Records
---
Amino acid sequence: MRITFPAWAGRNYRIQTASTVVSALGNAGAPIATAFAVLEAGWHTTEVGYVTAARTVPLVVLMLIGGAVADRWPRHVVMVSANVFNAVSQAVLAALVLIGHPPLWALLVLSAAGGAGQAFYTPAAEGVILQAVPPEHSSKAISVFKMGLNGSQIGGAALGGLLTAVAGPGWVLALDAGCFAVAALMRTGLVQVGERKSSGESLVHELRVGWREFISRRWLWAIVVQFSLMNACVLAVEAVYGPVVAKQRMGGAGAWGTAMAALSIGMVLSAVLMARWQPRRVLLVGNGGVFLFGLPALTLALRLPLPAVVVAMFLSGVGVTVFVVGWLVTLRQEIPEELLSRISAYDGFGSFALMPAGTALAGPVANALGLSGALWACALTCLGLAAAVLLVPEVRQLERKVPEARSKTPEPEPATSG
């Protein structure tokens, strides 16, 4: 039976979506496996935090360079190179864990290598998927892409947890390395759209150009600042406060796992809605989803039972997809193609910058305010930020442009070197 695809799902879109599902399947279980690898090596909670931070720091620090590189050279080449680098680093980590008792310095270095590879991959990937989406079908295409990504992450996390328990963390890390390798091979089939070559200018110059474009759009930097603080609060709730509350009065890790699963399910199911719905004021509707981000912290602060927390997490997942689709549609519409990766890098850098601080300060804040006070602070911060960004006129007023449907043109032949 021959599989047919919608006219808007071109070659690059299909390959990038399929390869993302593959890499996410392995990568979703890797954090679980890494944490247990650290514990099984004889280390403790503090060292788990160190290894987690070792991945996050280079992701933030190198993100801007990754964006400039992706706008300077062919994006598919950057993505394949980053995938190969991640496959090798994860394979080495898996081998050390399977051999037994890996030294802490090796865990730190290899975790940092994974973050470095992701810092170069992410801006290039956003540029590719946005470039591959026809403007008149952007909501549908982005929603389907997110549906595949989130569904794969749900399955990958479940599979990773099961394999970690049955076979050990080393085999889960080996699976992640294999998924990266397969994704790299698949992405060699991406075709180059437009002429991609070095401009002759330095990376510093191109970062300055990207910065000027970034700060010239008030809606853009306002939302990035919003999410810089928002993500720190959300991560503190999901990674620290939620598990603590679950252990104290909800029955333990299983309860919080159920809540986190509800978050993912909300993200997947709402993608079906966003594939059909094309609101006119796309940023305003997207920011409406942001108001839902504070619900989990609110239900935990109110000491509501587990079913209420599960519903809050589900609604928060719905809000994530509503915002992300609106955000990516706006970037596709408003940002010139040659700047997409740099703008995505500034977006990622700003949005991720305070996430390590969110987890590092979660304990001291809870000690100072009490756990309930810390949860109230997170809930009110999320709600306040969602309201504050509406003071920016462009967020309220920016409208979706509805271009005329383009006739289907043949995609270019795969780019070759030499």
---
Amino acid sequence: MSIEHTVTPERIAETETLIRPHIRRTPVMRVDMRDFGGAPLPVDLKLELLQHSGSFKARGAFTNLLTRNVPAAGVVAASGGNHGAAVAYAAMRLGVPAHIFVPSVASQAKIDLIRSYGAELVVGGDRYNDALAASQTYVATSGAIAAHAYDQVETLLGQGTLGKEIEDDLPEMTTLLVAVGGGGLIGGIASWFRGRVKIVAVESDGAPTLYEAFKAGHPMDAPAGGIAADSLAPKQVGELMFPVAQKFLQPPVLVTDDEILAAQKALWSGARIVAEPGGAAAFAALLSGKYVPGPDERVCVLVCGSNTTAVKFG
């Protein structure tokens, strides 16, 4: 059955009801681009970085654990950091053992967070796909279930609940900017809206997975580097989400490391928001002028992750 028939608005709404007791309804902040040195433009920021475990990933994590039979061996996840932290958090809350595999590019902030939730953590390999391979070996020998970071129906359903929440909060929104890594977030959100709003995909030019997939007509290996490599740099975009992307999205806007860093700094200086590089990438498209909204657009930017040590308090 195609993804359009499995990740439907009806199933996303059912999922939202199921996981609602376990997740936060994150706030929306209205800002003006003048706050960041730009021309006057009202923008809504959906602050999903305030979600449990510091990113939107908690939605997919709870969906995986609440809709599947979890064996005594528990759950396994491979992650650049945020998905692993979310699965570890959900497992802790639900009393499930968790084994998390992360690559060496995972930030210390994310490694420390995963450990704080009591999960068994394995660091190995240089990139996400190395951690994924190690996790698959563990699944085969342990009997645990795998919770995929982005290429799984349950994950897409969970992330899609964020689309519903944004629409409930901002019914007049016309344009939503979303960062892309493996595509689980934007795939779930696009499955909710189904073309009713304009969704602008934003990728790091160091990890243009969806951009390259659009060029090729199918998911394919892409570079996996850049400042946001621990959250936006799988080798390929997800197979499941790609048909949804082809139907409802345009090729992504690409932003540079410098533009992402500038967006991080601007969010802090202009709005006192501490976002990790991947969490600030969508805002970078707007701040840099890589995406220029039309005069009638009502813009929302999804700020999706906060697991960073960028701010130190003394």
---
Amino acid sequence: MSLNHVRPWRDIYRRKSRQIMVGNVPVGGDAPIAVQTMTNTLTTDVAATVAQVQAVAEAGADIVRVSVPDEASSKALKEIVRESPVPIVADIHFHYRRGIEAAEAGAACLRINPGNIGDEKRVKEVIKAARDHNCSIRIGVNAGSLEKHLLEKYGEPCPEAMVESGLEHIRILQDNDFHEFKISVKASDVFLSAAAYQGIAEATDAPIHLGITEAGGLVSGTIKSAIGLGNLLWMGIGDTIRVSLSADPVEEVKVGFEILKSLGLRHRGVNIISCPSCARQGFDVIKTVETLEKRLEHIKTPMSLSIIGCVVNGPGEALMTDVGFTGGGAGSGMVYLAGKASHKMSNEQMIDHIVEQVENKAAELDAAAEAAE
């Protein structure tokens, strides 16, 4: 899919995959790449789990996964699904009954490994429950839990073993005439993940869920995910993503969107272009950007804002943004609107003024979008 015919060096051509539905969210085909996360509350604590689901949905999550480890969690899931503003994926491991219960509770998708939930009869029961309740399935292959026969065959987790595992699971579903599935082949190693995803992308037309599993804390996990997921997305691979961080799930959603925004694959909220600051800065760039990021979190309209400390790069960056501010001298700087110098503003009043300008521009863009519908 060409994203910018004027600048072909920005084009990303999405891999052609068939489309499935996860609740009311289309996945694959020409649908936008969906951003997912997972709750880390006790599923049986319905109030806490629903609150977290609502928080990540507000941050932009399209789909949320919830762990269902026991029967009590299955019962809680029904209420969580009822109160959730987004489709819920039930995370199922080992016990096939949890998969059946989750489908009955209204889960939009089941995350399973068909090979670890029992014999063929049990797998068929889970597939029947998914079909009966209009529930899709995600095949979740993980380098840390590959089947024993594959580890014996290959000697260690490797791309070939992960792809083979994924294709074996696909065959189980297809042999039961079930085709509403997506697949992931995750590893904590960026190289292993990338190679496995490239292999599975060539071997199937199923939608692909991307993730670097157990990526680490907020900073290290963000970097690892940006490298791994960013390169795969750049190659056109990926229909949904989850950034796995040892951090608040809201942060996972934010990072996921930033990765997509940086590649021009999805746009949501204000994209702030800012300099790292130096001795030339006419105001405290770092503190200003930190404040603006928080003050502008409520803006969902896709737009751009440049915050540059001096006139070396400031005017040039402002030419390409909706709103801009470039530091000058004598305690003031220049405000740019739609790429053009508009008026001066004091550093003291600058933050409130920029927020006002961004809100005005967002309202203008929203009105134009509504008029075009």
---
Amino acid sequence: MSDPSRESAPRSTTDPSRRSLLGAALGGGAGLLLLDRRTATAAAVPRDSAIADTATWGARDPRATIDVLDHAPSKIVVHHTATPNGTDYSRAHAFALARSVQDHHMDVNGWIDTGQHFTISRGGYATEGRHHSLAAVLDGSRHVVGAHTAGQNRLAVGIENEGTYDELDPRDAQYTRLVELCARLCRRYDIAPHEIYGHRDFNATDCPGDRLHALLGQLRSDVAAEVGGDPTGVSWPLLRSGDAGDPVRVLQYLLNEHGASLTADGVYGPATESAVGDFQRSTGAVVDGLAGNQTWNQAVRERGSGDRGPAVRAVQHRLGTAVDGIFGPNTATAVRSFQADRGITTDGVVRVRTWRALLR
């Protein structure tokens, strides 16, 4: 049986085999009415706002022990199922969807259980996906390792949205429930709204569709209106062969954190380009040797007091402190001072906004 932390990277959710299998299981196919969220009559969000757990919708038992980590996730990744945009908005259909997704993930992908943590149907019903995900949220300090986004399964909560959103927006009921669920996760886990992403922000996939991905800025804003915080997403610089400077040196340190053996000389030469390509392959990103959004999103990791390693060296180099790779009191003080100067939350922890500021 496979270990959940070693499950293979999820297939692109635009995979025709997945689309046809789930569509057949759910009774989808020809004659389905496609509804645009902006033009369709708004459907009422179901009154029952609870998330139906795995027992409620009749899940199969997982094939192996689910890995539960003793730390909270730091981000949310939004997906679409790439199945037909059906017109059955009932609770029963939402449960049938949950069973079909689990069957596909276990029987076709070979995973131990449903890959994502939660699923939202087009009718606006939310179901638990991977076992123990809801209990982890209620606890507030644990995270279930999923199989929804290669390179991020130990760090991110995955939410699937029923449907295909390349040309159409989700229905109002579905989008409203997505906002509610994201806000709940942000509150419970202290996730910042700007840490809401789409699957394609990390992996080589079209998921969650052009239209849903374009809505992520609005989603962050709507969640921020509920929980507070700056919803502005982070955009990373694009580095390539021939570039030189401190951003390249930071990239080299981060690649070393993930197993490369580069000299952090600040020069984007052949060795760095090769290391970027290797890292992209290992994380399921687009393999082009260019360090853009996917590469940075995969490479950066939260670092704070007590941490050690190349990523800490990157921070210390940019702050002008002793570069010993140990995040001690002097480094924490320097980080707080840097954050205060840049208008970043002054907590001494290097999260995504601090990383981005360090590259300027």
